[in-house]
C-alpha cells in the first residue's frame, strides 16, 4: 500500500514537472506573446497581502511585457472559488492564477474541490515565501520557545492558540508545533487573521502564528513579543528572532507561499517567457523592498521549484490534517 501511494505521488510529480522539462529547442514556436491584455486572477479580496503583491508585480510585468495586466479578485472559500475559475480558463497564456497554500496544498485534504491542484494547472514561478512568526502577549510571561513549551507542559490544555480559520495555514502550523514540541495548545479558530490577532493583543488568547507584516507594528510598540520564526533560516526584518529549528526543534520548517500558475496544457514557451519576466521583476530593488516590508521573501526560480514545493507541502499538510483529524467546518 505504501509503495502504491509513493508511486502515485511520483507519477503526479513527474506529470506536474513535464512542461518545465521540455528543452528550449523542442518548444513550439509561437506567435508574438503577449499580443493582448492578460487577466490575473487573485482568489482573495482586494487589499489582502496576495492582492498587494499581485498588483505590484502586474505593474512591473506590464512594463516588461508591453501589455496591460488586469488583476481580478474572486475571493471566497479559502481561495477555492477564484482558483476554480483559473482552472477552467483557456490555456493560451492570457489567464493567470495567483497561487497560495490553501487552495493548492491544504483544501483538497479537507473537502472536495472543483479543480485538481496537480492536474489542472502548470506551475510558472514561485513568487515568495511567507514566514510566520510565533507571537505572544508579553503578559504571558515567556521570552523563548523553551519557556513557552515548559509552561504548556506544566499547564496542559490551558494555553490557547488562535488562527484565521479551521484548516488555515496558521492553524496547521500550530498543530505541527504541538506535535513537534509534544504540547497541547488548544486551537481557537477565528474568521480572519485580524480577529485572531485582536484577542492575543487583548490577552484573551495565549499565542498565534502570523505573517510578519501583520504584526510588525505591534512588535515595535511592545504590545506583542516574537518568540520564533517558522522558516529554516532567520528573517531579515527580524534578525534577532530565532527559528523554531534552532530553538531545539531541528527540522521544523513551515511557511506560506505565493506563486503564479496557468491552466494545464499552456504552451511551454509561454511558461518560460513569463517565468523569465517574473524572475527579472523580483530582482528590482523597489519590488524586493516592498515585499520585505510586507513580510515576504522574494524567491523566483524555475517552474519545477514551485511544482516541488506544492507536492511536498501538500504531503506535509495532508499528514497533519489526517493525523490530527481536522474536519472542514
UniProtKB/TrEMBL annotation:
Transmembrane regions: none
Keyword annotations from UniProtKB, A to Z: Receptor, Signal
SUPFAM superfamilies listed in its UniProt record: Periplasmic binding protein-like II
Residues of the signal peptide: 1-26
Pfam families linked: TctC
Stored InterPro entries: BUG, Bug_dom1
Coiled-coil blocks: none
PANTHER family named in the record: BLR1237 PROTEIN, TRICARBOXYLATE-BINDING PROTEIN
Family according to the record: Belongs to the UPF0065 (bug) family.
Protein name: Tripartite-type tricarboxylate transporter, receptor component TctC
Organism encoding this protein: Pollutimonas bauzanensis
Amino acid at each position: 500500500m505504501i509503495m502504491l501511494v509513493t508511486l502515485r505521488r511520483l507519477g503526479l510529480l513527474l506529470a506536474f514537472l513535464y512542461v518545465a522539462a521540455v528543452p528550449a529547442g523542442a518548444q513550439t514556436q509561437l506567435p508574438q506573446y503577449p499580443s493582448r491584455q492578460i487577466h490575473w486572477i487573485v482568489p482573495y479580496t482586494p487589499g489582502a497581502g496576495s492582492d498587494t503583491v499581485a498588483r505590484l508585480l502586474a505593474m512591473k510585468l506590464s512594463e516588461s511585457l508591453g501589455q496591460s495586466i488586469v488583476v481580478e479578485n474572486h475571493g471566497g472559500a479559502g481561495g477555492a472559488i477564484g482558483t476554480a475559475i483559473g482552472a477552467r480558463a483557456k490555456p493560451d497564456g492570457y489567464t493567470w492564477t495567483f497561487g497560495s497554500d490553501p487552495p493548492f496544498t491544504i483544501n483538497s485534504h479537507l473537502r472536495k474541490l472543483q479543480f485538481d491542484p496537480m492536474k489542472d494547472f502548470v506551475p510558472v514561478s514561485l513568487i515568495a515565501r511567507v514566514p510566520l512568526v510565533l507571537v505572544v502577549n508579553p503578559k504571558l510571561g515567556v521570552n523563548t520557545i523553551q519557556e513557552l513549551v515548559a509552561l504548556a507542559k506544566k499547564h496542559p490544555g490551558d494555553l490557547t492558540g488562535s488562527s484565521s480559520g479551521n484548516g488555515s495555514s496558521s492553524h496547521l502550523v500550530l498543530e505541527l508545533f504541538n506535535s513537534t514540541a509534544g504540547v497541547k495548545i488548544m486551537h481557537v479558530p477565528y474568521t480572519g487573521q485580524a480577529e485572531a490577532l485582536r484577542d492575543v493583543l487583548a490577552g484573551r488568547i495565549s499565542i498565534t502564528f502570523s505573517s510578519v507584516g501583520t504584526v510588525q507594528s505591534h512588535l515595535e510598540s511592545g504590545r506583542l513579543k516574537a518568540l520564533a520564526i517558522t522558516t529554516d533560516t532567520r528573517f531579515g526584518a527580524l534578525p534577532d528572532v530565532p527559528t523554531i529549528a534552532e530553538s531545539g526543534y531541528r527540522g521544523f520548517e513551515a511557511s506560506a507561499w505565493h506563486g503564479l500558475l496557468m491552466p494545464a496544457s499552456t504552451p511551454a514557451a509561454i511558461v518560460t517567457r513569463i517565468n523569465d519576466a517574473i524572475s527579472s521583476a523580483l530582482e528590482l530593488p523597489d519590488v524586493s523592498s516592498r515585499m520585505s516590508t510586507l513580510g515576504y521573501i522574494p524567491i523566483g526560480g524555475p517552474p519545477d521549484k514551485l511544482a516541488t514545493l506544492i507536492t511536498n507541502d501538500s504531503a506535509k499538510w495532508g499528514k497533519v490534517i489526517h493525523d490530527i483529524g481536522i474536519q472542514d467546518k
